[in-house]
Specification:
- This is Centromere/kinetochore protein zw10 N-terminal domain-containing protein.
- The protein is mainly α.
- Among the domains are: 54 residues, no CATH class; 68 residues, no CATH class.
- Helices cover 71% and strands 10% of the residues.
- It contains 5 helices and 3 strands; from the N terminus they run βββααααα.
- A hairpin with a 6-residue loop joins strand 1 and strand 2.
Length: 188
């Protein structure tokens, strides 16, 4: 008998036999078996539906929150999309592009001016400290030690040099080795 559907001619009601491949043998299912199989499948399907429905009912609040979050995310995505579209419209507008370039150029000029002012301020400070140091050196050479000591104390305060600090003062890079030797002989 070939695989497939075969109708048996008997005195009984019409019975449909189906040959099904059941590993490793072929099984023959007759109509009552098929009806039983269909009933079992329908029963299991109803049980699964019932379980899913009871799960959905028991977790209704969770699903409500989840769908609410999804709705909020969709709304926020639309808002972001609208914002991006507005930004693209602004960027594609020619006069705005020109204005942005002008503002950027002006910012660069102002930044350079600020750097120059800061450097001039630093140079002014270094020149002032150098003049005070020259004054102290001149006082030492001429023998006016009280004036030299007072000048050194003022320089220490200005340069924030502390006697307790074991590290080399940051100002040492400003002073030559000869000047350091002269200052080391000066009384505190």
């Amino acid at each position: 008998m070939e695989e497939g559907l075969a109708i048996k001619n008997r005195a009984e009601p019409l019975v449909v036999a189906v040959r099904v491949h059941c590993w490793p043998l072929y099984c023959v299912l007759v109509s009552p078996d098929l009806h039983l199989l269909i009933q079992r499948l329908e029963s299991q399907s109803l049980q699964i539906r019932s379980q899913v429905q009871s799960y959905l009912v028991s977790h209704r609040e969770d699903f409500t929150r989840l769908f609410s979050l999804c709705n909020d995310a969709v709304s926020q995505t639309r808002e972001v999309s609208d914002d991006v579209a507005a930004i693209i419209r602004l960027l594609s507008d020619r006069p705005t592009d020109v204005e942005v370039r002008e503002v950027v150029s002006e910012m660069k000029v102002k930044k350079e001016e600020l750097k120059v002012k800061e450097l001039l301020g630093l140079v002014g400070t270094v020149v002032g400290l150098n003049k005070r140091l020259e004054s102290v050196k001149e006082s030492l050479r001429s023998g006016r030690f009280e004036f030299a000591v007072q000048g050194l104390k003022e320089l220490k305060v200005s340069l924030r040099i502390d006697e307790k600090d074991d590290r080399e003062p940051l100002v040492n890079w400003l002073i030559s080795d000869d000047e350091k030797e002269e200052l080391n002989f000066a009384p505190n």
